[in-house]
Write a structure and sequence with these properties.
Blueprint lengths: L8 H4 L18 H5 L14 H15 L3 H7 L11 E2 L13 E4 L15 H5 L4 H18 L3 E3 L1 E2 L20 H17 L5 E5 L26 E3 L2 H8 L1 H8 L4 E4 L3 E2 L2 E2 L4 H11 L5 E4 L7 H6 L15 H10 L5 H17 L17 H14 L1 E5 L14 E5 L13 H8 L26 H9 L7 E5 L17 H10 L2 E7 L17 H9 L5 E6 L15 E6 L7 H9 L35 E3 L8 H7 L16 E10 L15 E3 L2 E3 L5 E11 L5 E2 L2 E6 L12 E6 L2 E2 L4 E9 L5 E3 L4 E4 L3 E7 L7 E6 L1
Parallel strand pairs: 2-3, 4-5, 5-7, 6-8, 6-17, 7-10, 12-13, 12-14, 14-15, 15-16, 19-28
Antiparallel strand pairs: 1-2, 8-9, 11-16, 18-21, 19-20, 21-26, 22-25, 23-24, 23-29, 27-28, 29-30
Helix pairs in contact: 3-13, 4-12, 6-7, 6-14, 7-9, 14-19, 16-19
The structure holds 2-acetamido-2-deoxy-beta-D-glucopyranose (NAG) (12 copies).
């Protein structure tokens, strides 16, 4: 969604409020009695948590005691109210005093008094489950303090089918195991703090162009019949796009947001196969389904096909509840379905004890030092060293410095100030020409911040801590071919030339930006950053490139330049980003980030068909015919060598991985909240324990260099040749990140579950473990896998 864009105003106009339904007709029936017969209605079946069962019973009781009008009223969401992006009406008998409050995410609260965390893609690049959890728990603490029940906050769709996807940075990774582990721990981190984990967008929301029709007036909403239709076969859906959602749901996620796009010809938010058959029945989702803002189209399609709440900006206006009331009264929608929608909202509310949240106030100061330190740790641990040549004192870490020169507008404070990034970015995103430190992406998924540590301030501060304080100069110039026109302080080319003569290391800061509502139009660096890098590298033999970007960028013009001695990829690093960059560059922190995507040698190596960027028409189609062969799996299949592969990242030390072993593991692995109804077949027979463990794989990681540091050991699975679906040669199925003192070693463990070994069978409508020989490979990237072992299930 996007509520804060000035261009959105045009759309809000037609909103109307219908007369409330009269209270005379329908009387309340017992939810328990009517409920169990309708598909998708929440029952106590499969719950493993007593807390949730009690919450469900309490919710059912509350609903049974409501009048018809009260029920209708509660399903009628208000728009932007009390600072919430959406709000239900109060429900005093449930203790809901002001309404249940939905608030934007995922990098932080839409308030300058809260912390701006690194983006999810940045978080994924840490490959550190403890950090996934602490980010979630720090975020949740801030949402709790403003009284927001439900951050609209955890993104695993878009996954990142194409590197051009405009919102990929809001999510973790297109690698379903990595995204699944990240979302599982994130859901737990949120809900352990009593905040509802809402996971979005379900599903097939892999592009911005035509996400809900063509740009019209502004760029946002238009004719629904121009909305992109994601055609995704059932195996690809289960194995890739839905897989992280399954992990989130099994961890007890209380909310799911359905997406704008159509799935196989029907809007995702009005699609029975998507919301009832898959989400509520097969995955046993225990919470409520909320539409994205404006993704509700018809009352009956939404109400009957699995949506519980339609948010403000529905094409019919913000009046869903009243229509729903009419539809119940005229017999089109069973009252048990209306009841279920409320039960599904109140169950997580009670399970997480949200009656104890404070009153809603988005102006409350909730940022904290603890949050800032988590934000910095993630920024530091995510930074990915892609190239380094430290010969003769060049490259990283920086040492023996007298003069350090920082070049590029991305080293400077954000051009439009730290508070206005959401609005101003609308005008810069399409042209990729925003200047200043880019700590976050833009749109509803970005967030303001109390401060931002831009690189110049951070390197200046860090330089002062050296025994001989470093002289740090900043040159906020961009494209030399354009005569450095963008420099705010009138510096010109001769200034920079003279400075390079005595600089010991020259860091070139460049960026690329991304924003909701637009796909990336180019993978090139903003403001002709390639030209700036080449200009400096041609003149200085210790040119270090630092990139802030939402995803892959084109490095082909300069990556092999002999004077480019190091490259740091920093993603969108949040308010502490500059400080993290300085700490890594000066060697206080040894870089340990690993790419959660592939960087190609040539952008033509990416799957060019993986996004529909064609003309506006009626019923445009995005055919996901590449199946699960996305990102590194696509490169592996094509036999194309990437520049930097998925999972890659260098360090200031060296590691060795050895001693691979594999043993059976029979440990059960019960769901924390509710078991799914997914089926498992072994040797043609249905069996149980899809999520139970099957094997334990161990390996030893040793720090063989002279600097302390962390390494990410990665396990990839190869399926037997007989596997029914054509599976990629390597599939990530485990990772572990030990921190090792120089010279020390540690044994790491990967636990493979039955589901990790299974593929989806369309015929059986369930998961099947193929017979034949599996292979596990362990190493330090998707293409550096020195160890392997085979086994049969
Ligand atoms: C719902 O109740 C609130 C008062 O709590 C009232 O202001 C609002 O108009 C009601 N909406 C409908 C559709 O009845
Ligand atoms: C598409 O939607 C617009 C707006 O509702 C409508 O005018 C047009 O007739 C529709 N086109 C088709 C082919 O259904
Ligand atoms: C419900 O979803 C199915 C697809 O699962 C679709 O065919 C049908 O038209 C939808 N019904 C409504 C009322 O939108
Ligand atoms: C019942 O009410 C709903 C909501 O207003 C409307 O969409 C539907 O067409 C109505 N059905 C009948 C049979 O009147
Ligand atoms: C560059 O800037 C310096 C200092 O402001 C000035 O003396 C010089 O004339 C400028 N050169 C050009 C080519 O504009
Ligand atoms: C840094 O620059 C100063 C001044 O040019 C020089 O004396 C010193 O040797 C340089 N240090 C390194 C490590 O190159
Ligand atoms: C590398 O930098 C030096 C200046 O330090 C320059 O003389 C040389 O031409 C550069 N090399 C290349 C290949 O541009
Ligand atoms: C990238 O690939 C395209 C198309 O194959 C080719 O024309 C171009 O020269 C390549 N660019 C580089 C830098 O290799
Ligand atoms: C769509 O993407 C392809 C591949 O990147 C590109 O060649 C083409 O120009 C794009 N078309 C539009 C309309 O943006
Ligand atoms: C999608 O692509 C596949 C494979 O190319 C093709 O068989 C199928 O007909 C396409 N579906 C649509 C709706 O275009
Ligand atoms: C250069 O880097 C290697 C590891 O890549 C490290 O072992 C070595 O100490 C570094 N050399 C210097 C001079 O810093
Ligand atoms: C590194 O590990 C390999 C096995 O992967 C082993 O053969 C080799 O001896 C190890 N080297 C060192 C320096 O530990």
């Amino acid at each position: 969604m996007l509520t804060k864009s000035p261009l959105l105003l045009a759309f809000a106009a037609g909103t109307a409020v219908a007369a409330p339904a009269s209270s005379s007709s329908t009387s309340s029936s017992s939810p328990a009695a009517s409920a169990s017969t309708l598909p998708g209605v929440l029952t106590s079946k499969g719950f493993t948590s007593q807390k949730w069962i009690k919450a469900l019973e309490k919710a059912q009781q509350v609903v049974a005691d409501l009048s018809f009008d009260q029920k209708v009223n509660f399903t009628d969401l208000r728009g932007d109210t009390h600072g919430c992006s959406g709000l239900t009406f109060p429900l005093p008998s449930a203790g809901v005093k002001e309404g249940i409050c939905f608030a934007d995410g995922p990098t932080g609260i839409n308030s300058r008094y809260s912390t701006q965390f690194p983006a999810e893609v940045t978080t994924a690049a840490t490959w550190d489950r403890d950090l996934f959890y602490s980010r979630a728990s720090s975020l949740a603490k801030e949402y709790a303090k403003v009284g927001a029940n439900v951050p609209l906050s955890i993104v695993v769709g878009p996954a990142g089918r194409s590197p051009y996807g405009g919102r990929n940075w809001e999510g973790f990774s297109a690698e379903p195991y990595l995204a699944g582990e990240a979302v599982r721990t994130t859901v737990t981190g949120f809900q352990d703090e009593g905040i509802t984990a809402l996971v979005k967008h379900f599903y097939g929301n892999e592009q911005e162009w035509l996400r809900i029709g063509a740009p019209q007036g502004g760029y946002f909403f238009s004719y629904p019949n121009q909305t992109i239709d994601s055609i995704i076969d059932q195996a690809t859906a289960r194995e890739l796009y839905v897989a992280p959602f399954a992990e989130a749901i099994r961890a007890g996620a209380g909310g799911i947001m359905c997406s704008y796009n159509e799935v196989d010809g029907t809007f995702a938010c009005e699609n029975k196969e998507v919301l009832i058959d898959l989400l509520k029945e097969e995955l046993a989702f225990p919470g409520f389904v909320l539409t994205d803002w404006g993704a509700g189209h018809t009352t009956l399609g939404s109400a009957l096909n699995g949506t519980d709440y339609v948010e403000a900006g529905s094409v019919k206006g913000n009046i869903y509840g009243s229509f729903l009331g009419e539809a119940v009264k005229n017999g089109s929608v069973p009252e048990a379905l209306l009841d279920d929608k409320i039960v599904r909202m109140l169950t997580p509310y009670f399970a997480l004890n949200q009656g104890s949240l404070p009153s809603i106030d988005f102006n409350r100061y909730v940022a904290s030092k603890d949050s800032a330190s988590v934000a910095r740790k993630i920024a530091e641990e995510s930074i990915t060293l892609l190239k380094n040549s430290n010969k003769t004192g060049r490259g990283l870490p920086l040492k023996d410095l007298q003069d350090l020169v920082l070049v590029g507008s991305a080293a400077a404070p954000a051009h439009y100030g730290i508070l206005s990034n959401l609005n101003s970015a609308v005008y810069y995103a399409p042209n990729n020409d925003y200047t200043g430190f880019v700590s976050d992406g833009f749109g509803s998924g970005g967030s303001p911040q109390p401060y931002a540590k831009d690189p110049l301030s951070a390197f200046t501060a860090r330089g002062q801590q050296e025994n001989r304080p470093v002289v740090v100069d900043g040159y906020f110039v961009d494209d030399p071919e354009q005569g450095f026109v963008k420099t705010p302080f009138g510096q010109n080319i001769s200034y920079l030339e003279s400075k390079l003569a005595y600089s010991n290391a020259t860091l070139v800061f460049t960026s690329a930006i991304a924003m909701e509502g637009f796909d990336r139009t180019t993978l090139s660096l903003a403001n002709n950053g390639d030209n700036l890098i080449k200009y400096v590298a041609d003149r200085h033999d210790n040119t270090i490139v630092v990139i802030s970007a939402p995803g892959p960028v084109d490095m082909s013009q300069w990556i092999d330049h002999v004077n480019v001695t190091a490259v740091l990829f920093t993603y969108f690093s949040g308010q502490e980003g500059g400080a993290a960059m300085a700490n890594v560059a000066f060697g206080d922190v040894n870089p340990s980030g690993k790419l959660p995507f592939t960087i190609a040698k040539n952008i033509s190596d990416y799957d060019q068909g993986a996004i529909y960027n064609g003309s506006v028409g009626i019923n445009p189609v995005a055919n996901f015919s590449e199946g699960v062969f996305v990102d590194y799996k696509f490169f592996d299949k094509q036999g194309v060598e990437p520049l930097f592969e998925f999972g890659y990242g260098e360090s200031y030390t060296t590691f060795n991985v050895s001693g691979l072993s594999l043993s059976k593991n029979k440990k059960s692995n019960p769901a924390p909240v509710r078991e799914t109804n997914e089926k498992l077949f072994v040797n043609g027979k249905q069996t149980s324990g899809l999520y139970d463990y099957a094997y334990t794989v161990k390996a030893t990681v040793k720090n063989t260099g002279s600097v302390d540091g962390a390494e990410v050991a990665q396990l990839y699975l190869t399926f037997p040749d007989s596997t029914p679906n054509k599976m990629p040669v390597h599939n990530l199925r485990g990772f572990a990140k030990p921190f090792l003192k120089a010279g020390k070693l540690q044994e790491v463990e990967f636990n493979l579950r039955n589901k990790d070994l299974a593929v989806w069978s369309v015929e059986k409508k369930g998961w099947v473990i193929p017979s034949g020989e599996f292979k596990v490979s362990v190493g330090t990237s998707s293409r550096n896998l020195p160890l392997s072992k085979t086994f049969s299930y």
